[in-house]
Design a protein that fits this description.
The chain has one domain (5-51, 61-103). It is 65% helix and 0% strand. It has helices at residues 5-25, 28-46, 64-103. It has 124 residues and is mainly alpha-helical.
């Protein structure tokens, strides 16, 4: 097991938890900051990928504390994903309503699209 694996997992989890706190406020500034924090956490995780020599015969990680921290990190990432999905749904719905109120409806009865750039991207 690489030295400091548990501590590095904890650091990544703290970053993801910090991003979740920002997502709860859902302001444009907090969403922008959240992006930077999640990118940092992702880079930290990319550096943690265990090498084949650091795995057990079954392919897992032996250190139970690191495994426990990895599960905690997974729960934090899931929470962040749900919060991001909620932010996306809110903004998508609001843009549809704004399109209908401002620009009317299309020939097919759908709310008219709102011209401009969306602040949330769902593509990686």
């Amino acid at each position: 097991m690489p030295p400091g694996m548990e501590e590095r997992l904890q650091a990544a989890r703290r970053e993801v938890d910090r991003a979740c706190e920002l997502l709860v406020s859902a302001s444009p500034e907090s969403l922008d900051r959240c992006t930077q924090i999640l990118e940092t956490a992702g880079l930290q995780l990319a550096q943690l990928k265990p090498q084949p020599s650091e795995r057990t015969a079954r392919g897992g990680i032996e250190d139970s504390e690191s495994l426990l921290e990895a599960h905690r990190l997974g729960a934090s990432v899931l929470r962040a994903a749900r919060l991001l999905e909620g932010a996306y749904t809110f903004h998508f719905t609001w843009n549809r309503l704004r399109g209908a109120m401002t620009f009317g409806y299309t020939e097919r009865g759908d709310p008219a699209p709102v011209p401009g750039v969306s602040r949330i991207s769902t593509q990686g």
